[in-house]
Amino acid sequence: MSGRSRAVVRWSPWAGLQDKFTMSSSGIPLIGLVDRIRRRIRQLRPSGDIAARIRKRKKVAAAVGKYLDVLRLGLLATGCLWLLALPLSHLQSGTYIDENALQPSQVNTYWDWGDVHRADKFLQDVTSLLDRNLSSAERAVFFATEFAKSGIPSSTQRYSIPTARGVLNGTNAYAIFSAPRTSGTEAVVISASWKSLTGGYNLRGVSTVLSLATFMKHYSHWSKDIIFVISDSHLDGMHAWLSAYHTPTNPNQDVGPLSIASGVIWTALNIDYPGHSFSHLGVFREGLNGRLPNQDLINSFRVISQHTGGVPVLLYDHYEPSEFPGREQIRSFFPTWLPDWIREHEDVMEYGYRAKNILRHFVYQAKGRASGAHGLFHQYRIDAITLFAVPSNGPHGFHALGRTVESTLRTMNNLLERLHASFFFYIITTPSSFLKIGSYLPSVVLVAASLMFGGLGEWVKAGWVEVKDEYMPSEKEKVANATPNSPKKKWIARRRDLLDAFMVVVTSHLAGLSIFVVICGEWLDTTRLAYIITPMCWVTLVLFRFTLRPPPASANAAPLPVLLKAINMCLASTLISVTSVLNFSLAALLAITLGVPLSFSAPSRSLPVCVTKCAVYAVLAFGWLALSGEVTQAIWDWQVLGVWFAPLVCLIYVPFVLQAGVVSGLAP
Amino acid sequence: MRWSILFFFLSWRFSVTAAVEEYREELTLRPLVDGKLAAHFSFSTLLRSAVPRDPSSLGTDDTSQHYTLFPLALGQILREHAIPEFHLTINSGKWDYDRWGHPGEPGVGSGAELWAWMGDGTAVQTSIDARWKALQNSLSGLFCASLGSMDALHTTSPANAFLPTGDLPRLLAPARDAYTLRHATLPAERVCTENLTPFLKLLPCPSRAGIAALLEPHRIFDADWHGLGVHVRWRADRGVQLTLTVQVVLDSVRTSTERRRDWTLESLFGRSLPRSCNVASSSVVLVTLPSDESAYTLSPEPHVSIEGTWSRTSDLNIVMKWPEEERFSYPLNIPPLSDLSVRRTLKGSSQTHGELSVVVRNNRPVPVRTHYLETMPWHVEFFLHTLTVTCGDRGVDCASLLTNMTYTPSRPHATPAQLLATLELPPHETLHLSLRVRKAFLRYTEHPPDAQRGWDLPPAVFVPFDAPHRRIYTPALLVDLATPDFSMPYNVIIMSSTLIALIFGSLFNMLIRRFVVIEVDVKVD
Amino acid sequence: MSGHSLKDPSTLLFQKQWIRRWIFGSYMALVLLGLPLWWRTTSIERLSLPTLRIDSLGGKELHLPLSVAIDAASTGTLSDSLVHRLRSTFESRKEQAPNLYSHLEFSVDSFQGAAPPDTYSVSLSEDAQFPIIQNKHLSVPIHQASKVPDLLISLLTPYETASPPGTFRHLVAKYSPRYRLSFTLLNEDAAAGKVVVGWDVAKMISRWIAPILEQTSELHNFTIESQIRFYAPLAFEPRILSNGEDMVHGLTQEHLKVFVNPAEWTLASGVSNDPVLHFVLFVPSDSHSPLRILNDASQPIFSDVFVLPQWGGIVLLNLPTDVPPKHHLTETELDHVFSSFQTQLRRLIGVSDLPPGVQSADPDRPLTDFQLDTLYRQRAFENAGSSKETLQSIIKLVHQIPNMPVGQDVRDDVRGALSALEVLYAGVWRVPASALQHSSRSLALASRAFFNPGMLALLYFPAEHKYAVYTPLFAPVAVPLVVTLLREVSAWRKDRREKRSAT
């Protein structure tokens, strides 16, 4: 083995790394026979430049190898800081309307006090329904009859959806007003669910829909059929109606067929009016599995509500700092130990306000939960939002609401084709400003990148090990490289036998699956489950240290933890970066909950460190079971609406954390 | 369902002298159960003892044509393309069979529909397809409608469902003694003023006199449903008969401020009937009385009978009132007035597959045999093996009720698919047909200008065996196909070509690269 | 890979020189095969047109011989002077109106016995009272011998009206091999009062129009259609003149220009592309009758007929007061209508009148050979000219617009028109009809080529767009290919040199 070749070989781990990525023409360790090589090199064209290039490349690779951990941590930190910086107003841009055909609030509305009066009458009837506490079926029949009285074909639909917590029964009422002179191929939906998203009854919302039906029948300028839906309960009723309107997907949900139908639904407005009057209209937009409606719908609604209805618009029910309860809400949003002079500072207030909106959005989207009945429409390529009449002592009522809804419908009525500009990637921070995809996506991608670097680093580390070189150099080679302080070390390649690692991975995923089955079954309360499983998991992890010993002669075989960690981190990184374009909030959640713990998983020589680490990972893996409310909610979402959050946590998150736990549980 | 009819005559010529050409006009007004009113204008001109041109004579110059009442423009089109029978309807809206019953003129499918029976010519340029195209162009020129786009993508020949309503002359050319049907629909076509104006010009009394005076565009185009029809047929014993029809469904409840269903000719059409058209052999207004027991008054007094020649000199304004009800109350449950109730939907929200579901209900106490015709553009493909037929709500399989099915598969980018079958409907029975379909992926040049709207699918047609004139059209459908965002095509092209270049580069590099052994000497510092 | 190959990579299979060259070669082959395909699919078909031949037409002129022979036997001593005077008159006319005579090669001489073929013979006769035309023979009473030159020249002059002598060139419709004659009876308002519900149009046409069509069948094919309209309002309000008790509604000359109301009247069927000559019989409503034409002094003139240049003719028919409300026009009422329609038709297709006093020998042929031949010559001359212009403008257009496709059919039409034209220019046409045929055929082909729908490209990308779109694809693909090509070539040459030096 010649000194040159040694020189080559010393750097070979990173050469090996770059072999994978830069199709280098070197890195093939050559064995002696210098003269032959010389001859061949002379035959070929002068290779000095290439050698230099390769050397440079090796240097870079070497640098990467040396500072890998710094790089990883740097990326991780940058990503997390970026996430924290999202509420800063510098990153954000003002909303605008992309589709020119919309022309929001360019029409004069016809909704007048007569219609308001009718709405009030409807309200009395609906309230009496509540007082006589009729069954949902009787309620639906009443609504259907009211629709029919105003000359609109109407019908009811009953459904029963089995869940772990008993069966959901209910009846929806709906009516389809086929617009004059149209072939009935397109439709828009006005809906109100019987229960408000506040949990109360949505009486005024229902009466608004009833009154709107009678009102719209008297005009001939509609270019699309208008479907009025009064769905039972809060979400499940609308879910049943929608899945019957499109193809019923879930075979064990019994949703009755619809006896009248219309065309393709383009837009849907869901009206939620729990209070007796309102001061603002709040927009709820998040849909199932993090889907969002086209931003044009929200923007044009905002314009209309402010100009036509004269009602200011909120995000959710978050008041702006400028308005009365706003400051209080934002103050309480900050931790109390912060001194007041910080909390009261204007910029901090602004930051807090936006952060509050973004956080609410993150929570909905990450859990894949619909923030209102509108959220069920998005999966059928329907743009839908909920108009939430924020309860207060006035000043607005049916009049403003009716006008706003009418004008919004007229705007959507203008559309000759769907809203198609790719306007679905956004985070709305205030009613009039939002984050473009370019300004929020990198944060998560950075975290993913750091994980990927870590994983690859581990991979290379698994493939090569640095050992003492007990080789006496021959004379001529001494001459060849006379550098005195050349360390007597060398890298040797190791086998990476992945079987054990894959075994662990598969086992962990199976464990996740079994947990999922268990909590879906709801045989026992998840809190208790948490108290049982977490310690068990801890103990098992610790036990691995003694049971799962790698074979002693591991000089030429990679140790299990290194391989496992490599696989674990690469998988996690891939998952996060893929998710980030589908459901950003979920990706961000994973980036935080996976990125940090996985980066710090490592086997340690000292037992106490190992024990504590195992404890941490055990808690991370199963601690969430203790939040039984959240768990049941997630399971309900999965079983009824098909939200992916619960399975994702059980089948992806838990196994990854478990793998990390195994890594730190194992002996080095 | 029992109807009684009243007559109001504008003019009546007791025609003993069989003039060569004869013109009759007729308006039928029918109050509907849901407070609306269906008006059916019919202007028919008879070209007595005329025989359609024989296609074999198409090469040569035509004999000179002399018309008095028959519109020359249309007559020449018939001669030029040797068309013995054709039917053109352009409608806006969805005819509600259940509430409005069967229309006076069966062709009420939404959009434009054109079908013609033609004998084959002897030369290439007089072949059926060439003349079919030419006929479309002439008609779209005549009516300012974009019928020219009824190309091979829309044209089918469902001969059993659209039988000729008249006779077909024997073809002179030997071995060509066969007539062929051409049928096409444009579901997205709408009626508007520029169609009505040339339509009226075909009438002897366009807009000043006679019943046609009521066709006032603003009122017609504010109606809930309206449609134009041109029907030409030939009867061996009578001659070539042209019938121009206008059908309107007006909502007097909507237009009246106090929500009553009372109507007068004034309130409906903005004017009363002026002097009669004095070249019409007869011009009559018929009012079909509602069958329900609501108390109504009708003025003026209708005629009982007319003999000899008679013509009205004063204006006629028919008034119908329901004095007892102060505002119209919609009936809550309306028994369907049509023989069949059909509901057709395209389910599924994916852009690759869907499910076509058709629900047919027989409202009659007797079994009904009917043709079932589906015409699908090529980009919606049927999976015939998934066709299921179930009865009632329990979903009993009764595939036996769907017999002698003929299916012409589509040719991609070329011709539509056509499914023709016979349905046996037991009395008061509901049939559910469901069929899975695949949605095609289009070339970017094949997308319409408003690509994101989706593609209109033509309505399906049900033709009862015992009453072919009571055709039933289902509503048209809209299908979403995978559509690129046409707002930025160049970006897409550039991006994809960059990607291809990248892949090519690396692959080529890998294949061509020459591996050499190089002496690398790294200074360790 | 084996240990040996590690020492020497070039022994690896995929490192073999020839394999690498094969790979590279196949890439190049792919590109080379692809290029023409790409070119074919993105370029526009532009067949070459016979530009030179068309340019060479520029100077050419059509020359039609026209020879007149004087019957020396009948004229005797006068003949020479006649010949001389004829020549001089023609020359002087040619001076005055070159555009009418320039294409004629006029030759006069006298003959004995039988007249030579394809010549117009003139003779003087004692017993005739007035000039008589028999086929191509004009015989003039001897006492009118002095008028012979003027008679003959005016007979040979196209578009010439008899009285007052002048030309009606502006009325003549543009030449077309096919015309559609549309006869329309317009009731201004049938609903108000009297209405004409029928007319014996077929009989009238066969009596008045058919003979002319038959004689001019060499020039045009005609298709005939007729209709009656019952509502045809005027776009203007006629001027009212009341002298004493009877009131007259007058059409001023300005009214006549805008008489036709295309918005309301549907006069002809647009079923074919042939140009239409309209003949309208307008029956004014009671409120507008009697309707008369006014002269510039706004006095009603006798005639109720007028021609709209190149469009058609219109006849006003004021119904007498005593007709029944539903009136059927009889032949007697229609005779003068259709006789004026006939005159209008002759004007529109360009048949010049016979000079005053001249009569045709056989009355059932309303047009004499003199008139027809004159018309043939004139039309042939015009067609040749316009066909030439059309061809030249096609060439110009194709030259100017680089994106204009030129298909097979266009090229064939152009060639056909061109060859017909060349034949026309080359030949000497003693029989004008045959010259006309060539000219009309050439014109038809030329205009068909000109209006060929394929001439406007449906889809083409401007070059800069092409490059903008393709550069990201082609540049990165081309660069490695070229570089490798150079490298391989250099390596190959080095090998050869080494081999040579080795041996």
UniProtKB/TrEMBL annotation, chain A:
One of its GO terms (cellular component) is GPI-anchor transamidase complex. Keywords: Membrane, Transmembrane, Transmembrane helix. InterPro entries: Gaa1. Pfam families: Gaa1. The chain crosses the membrane at residues 440-460, 498-524, 530-548, 584-602, 614-636, 642-667. It comes from the Eukaryota. The keyword Translocase does not apply. One of its GO terms (biological process) is attachment of GPI anchor to protein. This is Gaa1-like protein. It comes from Lactarius akahatsu.
UniProtKB/TrEMBL annotation, chain B:
The chain crosses the membrane at residues 488-508. Residues 1-19 form the signal peptide. GO terms for cellular component: GPI-anchor transamidase complex. It holds the Pfam family Gpi16. Keywords: Membrane, Signal, Transmembrane, Transmembrane helix. GO terms for biological process: attachment of GPI anchor to protein. This is GPI transamidase component PIG-T. It comes from Lactarius akahatsu.
UniProtKB/TrEMBL annotation, chain C:
Its main location: endoplasmic reticulum. One of its GO terms (cellular component) is GPI-anchor transamidase complex. It is a multi-pass membrane protein. Coiled coil: none annotated. The keyword Glycoprotein applies. The chain crosses the membrane at residues 20-39, 467-486. Signal peptide: none annotated. The keyword Transmembrane helix applies. It is found in: Endoplasmic reticulum membrane. InterPro entries: PtdIno-glycan_biosynth_class_S. Keywords: Endoplasmic reticulum, Glycoprotein, GPI-anchor biosynthesis, Membrane, Transmembrane, Transmembrane helix. GO terms for biological process: attachment of GPI anchor to protein; GPI anchor biosynthetic process. Pathway: Glycolipid biosynthesis; glycosylphosphatidylinositol-anchor biosynthesis. Pfam families: PIG-S. Belongs to the PIGS family. This is Phosphatidylinositol-glycan biosynthesis class S protein-domain-containing protein.
